[in-house]
Amino acid sequence: MAKHNFLLIFLLSFALAHTNPFFCEASNDDGDHKLYIVYMGSLPVQRDSSNYSPTSHHVSMLQQVVGGSDVTKHHVRSYKRSFNGFAARLSEKQKEMIVGMDGVVSVFKNESDLVIGVIDSGIWPESNSFTDHGVSHIPAKWKGHCKGGANFTCNNKIIGARFYSLPQDATANDHNTIRDINGHGTHTSSTAAGNTVIGASFYGFAQGTARGAVPSARIAAYKVCFNDGCDEASTLAAFDDAIADGVDIISISIGTDKAYDFTSDTIAIGSFHAMERGILTVQSAGNSGPASGSIMSVAPWLLTVAASTIDRQFIDKVILGNGKTLIGRSVNAVVSNGTKFPIAKRNANDERCRGYSDLCQCLRSEIVKGKLVLCEGLLKDEAAYEKGAIGSITTDLGNPDNDCSKVTYFPSLNLNPKDYAIIQDYTNSTNNSEAGILNSETFEDHSAPKVASFSSRGPNPLISEIMKPDVSAPGVDILAAWSPIASPSLYSSDKRKVNYNVLYGTSMACPHVSGVAAYVKSFHPDWSPAAIKSAIMTTAEPLNGNYNMTGEFSYGAGNVNPVKATDPGLVYDISMKDYVNMLCNYGYSAKKLKIIAGAHSPSCYGEHHRSWVKDLNYPAITVNVKPLEPYIIKVNRTVTNVGFPHNLTYKATVLPNLKMNITVEPEVLRFESLHEKKYFIVTVSGGGLRIGSAISSSLVRSDGKHYVKSPITVLVS
After folding, report:
1. Which of 112, 507, 554, 710 is catalytic?
2. Which among 9, 129, 388, 506 could disulfide-bond with 307, CB atoms 3.0 to 4.6 Å apart, if both were Cys?
3. Does residue 129 carry a catalytic annotation?
């Protein structure tokens, strides 16, 4: 794969023992055939493999179950270079016979039967990312419909389409079709499940093979966002439909400006009932970072995703008239040889602009025409262009790290505040200040992955005992499909038409994890949403650095690792009833919860126990303590064995932190069977912490192969 491909490619590299197959009586074909993947662990070790042919072995296994049928019609391909297994077209009965053979770890349907429901701004069906090349027929389980409006057609890739118009908006151009006119929904949909496209790029930037996280999965698009924003009533309707349609995962890269009570938040409500039906919802964390407590996706049944950087940056250079070169960020495709232009300066005697601290707050054509403009703010350069400016140099005071690049449609770049001050000083020091902006370059970022500065932060402002965000994923400088009628720079005056665009935001990180969740579900279709979420969280990888009082409130459990998530060893499972009891202890009345939860009535009638909220079986542990006082807090957790083989022993290790003491009882958990559960207690103690501070550690349970990591944070409030 190219070094800077924007999406995750999943390679299976498990190391499970191979044994000889069990010979069973052949069967006849018994109905409809589907594509299944037979996973058989690792290849035999070198000393045992001299006479072993994986393909011959796989064909022999198939011959035992297909009877007199031509085995070549069933065998699709063998996996024989890095691990052992094969893909085959099988009936349900034949599949069950394969399951019973020795050496078979698992048999599961091809990913193309998985459906990711994307609730966003619609989709552009003609994009190459949404061709159904290589995708089989629509699965029989699908109950949805293609209602995309006029001139919209679904295929075997986009199998569902719905848009939601309120009566008063029915005449608006973007309210009567699911077609995406702003690009956001197309971008997120292709990131989650776009088909493989060779040679994708944005004017040559990020050129390579584009593919979604799960290229063979299906997409059901639900349009709830329009030119005038995202509608809450429509969002809840989309959840209602997506659940009934039969999606497997819901991906929603939208949200509110802050965290709201669960009974007033349409996404929390919709995702709660999706969870009840076995559907995990993945949501973006928000783009209000790095402020503490700025996260808006906080419900414990949601998988909340922060944005991290990737090892590719788009940089731009500005050369000042005094010869100094400053490096900024932009995706600037405007061909430039560095020709220098005057830098606009406001006349100090201009009465019409008195009281404005920044020239871009009082743009006048006679001042900026044919010149470069300095602007304090990323979103002010379009106004400068409309007034005749030749280009702009901006800074974002809220993002001093300047870690993301914005697509621009005329020479423009963003500097960090320190370098912006340098160019201001230069401009003020001479009457003939000038500068030239080059077109962008690609730069390898060795500091990645780091949490993006804009990514919203915890702690959870509603239930501080529930760590948020949960995980992080690539969300900076992401190339994905785009609507050709949408402005690539998001400015109305930019009339360029592109099929792929570069964006940043937690909106871009969310569909990466939606794809990972679908990928995990393809291996474990019977897992609950909480089990899938746990697998993704406990196998996440560390990030570099942080921008917060503690890293977990920035990036959660870490950057997702899809391969490890399919084989986590242990999971922290949570039932519907567990969530309901947590809400009861949090303070919701039993009467209200009975209405919300229906048959899953809470068991905590009478007095609420807020201190029990921490005991929700979450994959992360967060405790609240009082400032300066000593504390001893016990937290209960239960893990379920999902590893192979099943007779495993897990030992506990705690990452040292001198500011607190952590003990685990029992330290050793021994499992003898699949799905066996074990209970343990974590005791966190310490004291003398200042108000507003936070410290962190982690608990890792390992059997020598699996490493099940749970963050532990102490929050002082």
Report:
1. 507
2. 506
3. no
